[in-house]
Amino acid sequence: MKMQTLEFQFITGLKRAIFRNARLRGSWDSNGLYSDSWTEIPMQEETGTDGCPIFKATINFDLANQGKTFKWGVVIDGPQGANFWAIPSEVQDINSVERYRQFQLSGDTSTSQIECYYYTVGRRLGGCPKISQG
To answer: Which of 24, 106, 122, 123 is most deeply packed, by most CB within 10 A?
Structure first.
């Protein structure tokens, strides 16, 4: 069975660390196969290239499901309490109010496929890293 590694990133774009205990949820099972029963795993918190908190998780997927469209999202704890769905963007369907991300496996096993979600893009579009002068 051929496997492909995917890295999921929830990029906060917020300087303050207001989120914690991020968990990746998605439409796959523990063997990396598509499933309508979503699984959940913890995400690791790091500092992103913008200097803001970022949450990451890696999953190995079975390429037997290469043509399938997988769905995913993130659950977080934050200022308003615990277990909040962190994907506020609705899917691009005028008849739907569902909020999740989706992807298909690229089939390229030589590199990790990255699926990411930017909670806010203010730093991504307008911010520049500080340059140290000395």
So the answer is: 24
Query: For 94-133, how does the pLDDT look when each residue is reduced to its tens digit (9 = 90+)?
Result: 887 888 899 999 988 888 899 999 988 766 654 444 434 4
Which structure tokens are listed for 114?
């990255």
Cα distances from 81 to residues 54, 74, 76, in angstroms, run 19, 15, 9
34: closest CA among 2, 71, 82? 71
Is 58:5 a contact under the CB 8 Å cutoff?
A: yes
Question: Does residue 131 form part of some domain?
Answer: no
CATH number at residue 85: 2.60.40.10
Amino acid at 125: L
Domain-embedded: residue 32: yes
> Which element (helix H / strand E) includes 84?
strand 81-85
Neighbours of 75 (CB within 10 A): 18
Is the pLDDT reported for residue 134 higher than 60? no
